[in-house]
Structure formats: structure tokens, C-alpha cells
Amino acid sequence: MTYKRTDLALEETEMHRENTGEQGDIDGIKISEKNDNGIKITRVEVLDENASKMISKPIGNYITLEADTLDYISKDEYESMCKALKSELSYIIDMDLSKPVLVVGLGNRNISADALGPKVVEQMLVTRHLFEHMPQISDSFASSVCALAPGVLGITGIETMEIVKGVTERVKPGLVIAVDALAARKIQRINTTIQISDTGINPGSGVGNNRKALCRDTLGVDVVAIGVPTVVDAVTMTNDTFDMTLDAIKNSGECTQGILSVIDKLSDEEKYALIGQVLMPTVGDMVLTVKEIDMAMNKISKIIAGGVNTFLQREMTFDQIESFTL
Amino acid sequence: MTYKRTDLALEETEMHRENTGEQGDIDGIKISEKNDNGIKITRVEVLDENASKMISKPIGNYITLEADTLDYISKDEYESMCKALKSELSYIIDMDLSKPVLVVGLGNRNISADALGPKVVEQMLVTRHLFEHMPQISDSFASSVCALAPGVLGITGIETMEIVKGVTERVKPGLVIAVDALAARKIQRINTTIQISDTGINPGSGVGNNRKALCRDTLGVDVVAIGVPTVVDAVTMTNDTFDMTLDAIKNSGECTQGILSVIDKLSDEEKYALIGQVLMPTVGDMVLTVKEIDMAMNKISKIIAGGVNTFLQREMTFDQIESFTL
Amino acid sequence: MTYKRTDLALEETEMHRENTGEQGDIDGIKISEKNDNGIKITRVEVLDENASKMISKPIGNYITLEADTLDYISKDEYESMCKALKSELSYIIDMDLSKPVLVVGLGNRNISADALGPKVVEQMLVTRHLFEHMPQISDSFASSVCALAPGVLGITGIETMEIVKGVTERVKPGLVIAVDALAARKIQRINTTIQISDTGINPGSGVGNNRKALCRDTLGVDVVAIGVPTVVDAVTMTNDTFDMTLDAIKNSGECTQGILSVIDKLSDEEKYALIGQVLMPTVGDMVLTVKEIDMAMNKISKIIAGGVNTFLQREMTFDQIESFTL
Amino acid sequence: MTYKRTDLALEETEMHRENTGEQGDIDGIKISEKNDNGIKITRVEVLDENASKMISKPIGNYITLEADTLDYISKDEYESMCKALKSELSYIIDMDLSKPVLVVGLGNRNISADALGPKVVEQMLVTRHLFEHMPQISDSFASSVCALAPGVLGITGIETMEIVKGVTERVKPGLVIAVDALAARKIQRINTTIQISDTGINPGSGVGNNRKALCRDTLGVDVVAIGVPTVVDAVTMTNDTFDMTLDAIKNSGECTQGILSVIDKLSDEEKYALIGQVLMPTVGDMVLTVKEIDMAMNKISKIIAGGVNTFLQREMTFDQIESFTL
User: Fold this and answer.
1) Of C1, C3, C9, C5, nearest to C200 (Cα)?
2) Do C262 and D282 make contact, defined as CB atoms within 8 angstroms?
3) Which of C126, C132, C156, C168 to mutate to test the interface with B (most CBs of B within 10 A)?
4) Complex ipTM, two decimals?
5) Which one of B261, B284, D228, D251 is most buried, counting C-beta atoms within 10 A?
């Protein structure tokens, strides 16, 4: 099932249901939904190895926050989203306040659709150096926080995991929060969905280049990942639209047996491969984003930084934190 | 035929042929092709009103330069493309050296896929102020050149045409060269094609918001437009892939009469509308670009500035011009 | 007295007092001071031609808002400064709500110390196009606002005044608000002072290149200028420090008659010229700014945009306006 | 003598001579000068501990390349400077081609005057990942190169040295090349001088905040530093101008005994302290740069990247390297 690229556990469960035709519970996966101030929050818990294989995601928790848009929002919606993010981080993270938190902003700051991580890092309220050098000031802060935007392999020549591991070995954080841009299957997910997970992250996995994962196994410390889909790959997106269009033709009642027999002969994999072939060689590996991505990243990085900052400095008000990151 | 959004005359002629099934000459349209150092150059001349209506483009010349990529290029390819651009500009433009040339960079500099125009303006070799204030220096320059990036309606609150007209009335240029990002029908055109035309330009026309045109009628001076497709709209792109995929199914010989009868019942317009409906309401007006657009715009703006600068300062060598814009 | 470069009327009055030795009122100049939430507000009114010559400033009003810093501020200080700016704009401007306001952001966006104007323009709540095309929306806004960042002569080849005049002739605003970076005499003014005046502005005047002024005479409409000192020229700054140091030596009581007689022999102009000569040829025209200018411009442009937006849209709350410019 | 802030060994030797009044050789310091295509190259070798203390610089080599400007240069001058830099790097570095080279870009990319390092990193021809994953491609490259812009303490909360040490422990480079913006004593050094040294570098040392050094002692690998002065501190600059102005007064012959006796009573330290006091509290720690710093950093980072790239990939021509970094 990995042929359709998505980094979202929620889309993986959707695809599993489409493929199996089952609409109810999935064995080994616990799903709960709630609505908080217009934000749809879905908690997906992958409980066992079997379920993990089924949806191609490690055992663990995946929380999705969905809004109509994360881009064109009012100040109230901005604050609501920050608070929902803080609240879900509190749910998924069991903080050890005695050790620093390392926020890692993955991605390439020079590519708008990949700049989410570095942009969040620039808005983090960083305090670790105050704890080390200015204890009188650090009293105001609940957490010792440091942050790093390690860059991408093509620019550094070094695997992201190597850089982060080198730094964690020296900083010895109690928690790594990794922020990255993700790939979704559906283009309408772009700039509308935030995923939090406690299973770590595989830099670049969503867009075709698997690098070594950032996770407890590799770093020796818990890794919570926060991501927002910013891209879809052309073949996945087209395939989905193709299916939806054929469904619409079927449902319109105009469909004869003929078309069904053709489509039914093709397995999902075959159809996906066919579309890939049609789009080759020119579209091939193309990864698409939306025209407004630059502006959206400014907004969304602010939401994520706001959520993470208020989570980490829990004794400060929203306004106090804004003063530091004005 | 205007339902499929494209700013390229070349794609309009392709669509005309697809729609009519005619593969030969089109009445009222003269097309010639040549290959220059790996660059495919197509000159499309729309000769009369009838042809103009057929392909939804004003009477005039449209030249397309196509390369495998304008993004990942060597220094030699960069220079070849600059020279081809200079050469086609010389073909289409009859320069009056006694008046200044105004280069207008359309688009929003804060949106990567729309920033081509402003980026070109920043690399122009601007000389008009030297002609006015420092005649001893201006002797080295063949043309008096000025440049303007007027911004976009959403940021200025003023129609681009109003700003440009206000400035042309004062500067009184002999020629306006307008540079803009375009919309294509096919995603593989993004960052591979340059279109030059002598019919002016309609800012934003390719992406759904028609503004008043920059052309001889509105500005009272010849307007040559240079554009590069940077976006496709989601519905147009999906529709094209859908067609190609169905063709592939047909050609595979697996196709029964049934499917053909269904597809044949749908006119092009109906199918396009159906896909639009399928993608609504979430994808709707989405305008897509490629993930690498930021880097590509840096490269391509350099090519266009290089081509225009060498065209305008025809007595200077390529290296001399590079010295000014290093 | 124009040899010491400053754009601030307040510094001109200070210099006049230093030069004349008079500490009381200046004939033809009305000065009043107040303190508003830690912000020192000085209103200087130049009443007649004689006073105008004395301090090298056109007849009119000059208001200075001074804080310890405009850079490292809390959210409360940010809002206080916005409100003070709004209040002083209300004092100096007699609004005609029936015509649009044109906000002009002068300066070069690629030079941090000169980017104040363009940065403010990007944060303006622009509404004129809504008034023209979407009257149902424009009802929420008190003023029709448009904005323009015309660029600088070296990049456009066109005098700023020409561009602005071309646009005002088409837009026919009732008021132009021009925002620009200024030159101060004292480096401690950088990023601490905002000047508002109703006498227009001379782009680049503070840094040695006089361009045609933006004012009622040239544009045919009232021009209110808002500026913040971001640079000092090296000679002016050094001269001032030299004076202060000599004063300190004198006041230390260590001074013999000898040194006084030498210094006294030199007129102010001679000493200034001497320092200029000492710094020549290498330092010469150098214009200095502070290392933190980039960050400071982000903050200060936000303050000015906040003040102007709340002034222009007087029926909206601060938070409503922030929603638009988040 | 460390009270006057400079990172340049050349300025330290100048100050030593001024302070001692000796104009000839300095014991324990070997100085040689040459002129290469208009570029003045000075090699300063600090030979023993005694000399090291005298000029406050570790034992080792310091090479200075000086041009009239590194900012407004022609393409020929750009290439000459790259070649001179390559040549001096070859002189100072004894390359072990079997291990990767790590280029570290120190500084804050969001502060123009501090962004030299990060800007150079972005223009490095990075090859280490090719050596690891694509040996067929890496054959074209003489050196395995990786690069890192670790950020600054205020943004990361982690000492630069800690990050670099963490990464070097994993990458195990044979050489670290560290690029940083420097502080000079004289403002005319800004954007005109490049210093290369083989003694490592102390991030931030020139501007008042001493961090742990990057050098063989801390990293266990040779560190070559490349720096360009981009700032001066206000007190140092003023003090120098004060001295020069007093000298000019003296030399003008107008000087009486009186002034000499006052000035002579003040030691250098006292005078420096006096000026610092005069400038306090407002100017205090102010660090100054020039207005054009943004543009200059673009040019100068290109020169340094060009010099380092041609040095590291010695089998490639200048044009081949430019193709990669176009």
C-alpha cells in the first residue's frame, strides 16, 4: 500500500478502508474524534505490529488537527489553533522538565514548501543558554529549550540524522520535537492539517528520498514529530482524481457494464502504474504544491511556534510569549 | 475553448488540433519551428480575426523557446538560452533607440510562483538616469532603460495597468517590455518554456483574475511580453491526465465498446465540468506549482534578465553585462 | 548649518541652540513636549520663513515620538506606540474620507537600512480595490487605502517623484502618506525615534542625494511623511563625538588655557571640515547603521503599519486590524 | 591592548607599532607583502608566545587580502580575487584528500552584517553525499566536501562549538574551514579585506561575546578561518578618528603646548575610556556597519565561495564550478 505517498496516518487509514471496503473499526487501530472550536481533532493509535503493517506506520500515536484553512485565519482562530496544538502536545508528551528540549526544524529554508521546520525554529523561544549562563533570568521559564535547523542533505552533504545525533549527544535533551513539511495524498490537505506523532520522523520520506529516521532507536531520546502537508506528488494526486471522476460517472447512472468491466479488470496497483506511465517521462517524479505556499508557511509556522512555545513555557500567558517573538 | 486555462499560444494551437482532430496547417495561423543549440523555437503568427478567435489570442506574434529544463542548467546552456532570447527579441522588436525602454516586472514578489517579473527587474541594467544626469557615462550604453515592479492589486489596491499607465505618461518610453509568470495547461511546461509575444499582456489572466491589459491600446506604446509558465490550475491539469489515461486504456486494446460509448457521450466541456465538480468544493480554484519553484525562479529570472540586457545593450559583450549585474 | 546631515527637525533645533548658545525659545518656532506612557512626544511647529531658514526645514509641523528603543519591545509597548502614532496622526491630519489615501513606501527593499518604507507598505490594510469592486465588503472599512513601493532611482532609473506623480494623477488621492528611512545626526537616534511631518519629504535627502520632493507643490495633494532614522553619516557622527569628548576633557578641569585657545580658533565649520578631511579619502561619504538593523526594521515597520492602519480604519479595533495583517 | 576590538592580525601589528612608536620589524613576527593584480597580500606569521601576547593573537599564520573594494567589482576583478584566495589557501593548507572537508558558516543569517558564513555555505559545492552514495559521480570531484551553518547562540540556545564538535565527531573531517564576519578597528576595512588564518576562530569574539573557540584544541582537527570585517564598534571607531583629528591639528602647526600637555597626560587607555564614557550610556556597546552591507555580503560571499570551491575542486575550471553554483 506504500505506493501512494502520504505521511498522514489518517490518510493511510482512509486508504485501508477504500481498499478493503470495510467502513467500521480496524483491528489494532483505535480512532477517536472530537471537535474543538471548529478544529477537527482525530487521534489514531496504532496498537500492534499487524496494524502497523496494514497502514505502513510504526506503532504509536498520531493526532491530526484539521481546519478549513490554516492560511487565511483571524487572530481568534490563530489563538484557538495554538491552544488546540498545546493541548494535544500535552496529551501525547510526558515532559521531564529537568532536561532541555531540542526543537529540530527539518527541511530546506530556500524552498518555500520545505521551509516549515526552519521557519518554526526561528520563532522558538530559546532559553537553554539562559539556564546555563543567566540563572536569574531563566527562573521565568518553565523549560530549557534549544533549537536547530540542520539543513538538508543536498546542501550540507551530511545526513540530517547524523547532524541531529551529533548535537543530541552533546546537548543530551530529554525530548526532541521535530518539525517538518509533509506529503499528503490529497491536495486539499495542503495547509489545512497538522499531524503530531510520537513515533519519530523520517526526513524526506514523503517525497521519495528516505533518509535515516529521527526516532528513539537512532537518537536514544523520545522524538515527537509535528508536520503539515505542503506537497502532493503528481501521480498520487492524479490517481485520486481519476478514481473520484470514474466514481462520479458510475454514480451518474450513465455507466454501462462496459466501463465497469474494464476498470474492474485493473487492480489499484495496475491503474496507479498506468497513470504513472501516462505521466512519464515528463511529469514523473514531480512534486506539486499550491501557488500560495510562501504566505501559508509564514502563517502556519507561526501557529506551530505559538503552540509549541505555549506548551513548553506553560506558566506564561499567550501575550507574554508573543512579546518574546514579536 | 477558453475553459482550459493557458497563457501559451502554442498550447492553444495544440488544443485546437485536439478538438478538431486536424493535424495540418490551421487557417490564419503561420507556424514555423527550428532548433537552436538544443532549444526548440516555435514562431506562431496569428494572422486574422478568425484565427484569433479560434485560439483565443490577439492577432500578432508568439514565440516559444523550449528546453528540457530552465532550472538545472550548465553555464553554457545558460548563455545559449540568453542568446536565443536576445535573437528572438531582435526578430520581434523594431527598436527606436531614441526613446527609453520601460521594463515592467508584473507579479507579487512574495509569492515564489509569481515573482518572476520583480526578480527580472532587479537584474536589469538600468541606465535611464545616467542618460539624464551623467551623459559622459551613458555613452557606453546603447539604450536608455528604466524598470518598474508595480506590485499586484491585492497589495497595492491599484490596478497594475493604472500604475504602468501613470508611469508611461511621464517617462514616455518607446517600448514596454512586460515580464510575467504564466499559467500553462500542462505541468511539464513549468520552468521549461519561455513565451515572447508582441500583443501585450493581461496581468493575472492565466490564473482567473482578468485585469486591464497592458498593450498598445491601453498604454499608447508597443508592449512586448515575456512570460514563463509557473503554474497550472488543478482542474485543467487533472483533465489532461484523465484524457491521456483513457487514451492509454483505449490503446492497450483492452477497451470494450462500453467505455467508449460512455466517454463518447461526454463532450469535452461536459467531461471538464465533471472533473471540476469532482474536485469541488475543496480543490476548486486551486492553482498548483512545483516544489522547486523558488530555486527555478532564481535561475530563470537570470536567463530572462541576461537575454533582455544583452538585447538592449547590444554593443556590450555578455561578460561586460555580467559585470554590472554580478 | 546644513553641513551636518539630519532629517530630524528636533535635531536641527538642538543644533541651532548649540550654535547660538541660546537655550530658551526660538523665534518663529513653537515647541511643546509631553510624555505618553513612556513615549516622549515633541511637537515642533515652524511658523515663518525666518525660522524655516534657521533650522533648514520648511514651514509646518514636525512631531517626534521617542522611546528608549523601538526594537526590543514588549507587546504592550508595541500597542502603546501604535496608539501614540495614531493619536499624533489624528492631530496633524485633517482627513477627507471621500477620497482614497495613498501610502508610499520609499526606499530600497534590498538594503535593510533603507527598507522601512517597502516593509510598511507590505503590512498596510489595502482597501481601495474593495471600494471599487466589492462595495458590500468595503462597508467595514472607514478609508479607501492604496499603497505603492516605487523603488529607488538606482534600480528603476526613474525619479521616485515621477512615479508617485504618475500614480497620483490616476488614483487622485486626498492624502499621501510617505514612509521613509531617515538620517540622524546622533547614532543613538537610530531605531528609537519616529518623526511625523506635514511638509512632505525629499527622498534620499538625508543621505546625500537630493531628489525631487514629494509635497503639495509637486503632487498637488497633502503629503504627510513618517520617518525613522536608520543611518548617520560617518563625518557627522564623529564630529559630534569629538565635541562631546572635548567637552568632557574641559569639564574634567584638567584643561589648560592652551587647548581652549586652539579649539576656540576653529569655527564649527572648520572643525567639521577638518574631521571630514581626516576621514577622507577612505571613509568619506560612508553612511553607517547599526548591526541589528535588519531585525529592528521588522519591528519598527510593524509599529508604523499598526499606527497608520488603526488611524485609517478608525472604526476597527486593534485586534481586528491585526487579523488582517497577521 | 585588547581594549580596541579587532579580529585582524594586521591591525594588531599596526596598533603595536603605534603604541611602541617602532616602525621596523617586530620580534617574533614575520611579515611579508606582495601585490597580485591590484590585490595587496600580507602574510603575518606569529612565531612565538611573546609575539603572540604582544598582538593578542595565537601563534600561526594570518594572511590578509586587501582590495579597494570587494563590493563594486567587475567580473575580472571577481575572478582575480577568487584566484588569489585559492592561491593563499593552497599556501596555508596542507590538504589530506582522503578525508572530507567541513565548511562551517558561522553567524546569524537574519542579520546582514553577520550573514557572511551562512551565505558562503549556501554557495558551496557540496559533494560528500555523492562520495557516499554515488561513487560514479564523485569521481569528477577532487574533494569530499560538506557544509554546515550552525546558527548563533541566541537563536539555537547551543554554543556554536558544541554543534560543530557534535558534527565533526560523526563526520570526522580532515579539515574544518570556518567562515565568519569579523570586527575591524577601522571602518574603511569593512568590505575591503579578507583574512585567512590557520589558528582557528572564536565565534563572536570581535563583537564582545567570547564563545568557545573552534580550533584544533577543541575540535581535534585543523581549522582554517576565513573572515571579512563587516562591523566596527562605535567606541573603537570614534577613538581612532579622535586620534587622527588631533594629529591633524598638531601637524597643522597651530597647536600650542597647552593641548599637547593635556593629551599627553592621558594614556591611550584613559583616552579610550574617556570616549567610551562620553558615548555611554546611549551609544555604549553599539556595533556599526555600513548602509550597503546587504549587497556587499552577496558579492563577498560569492567571492569566498568561489575561492574555496576552486581550491577544493582543484581539477575543475572556474566555469565548471560556476555551472554548479549558478
Assistant:
1) C9
2) no
3) C156
4) 0.90
5) D228
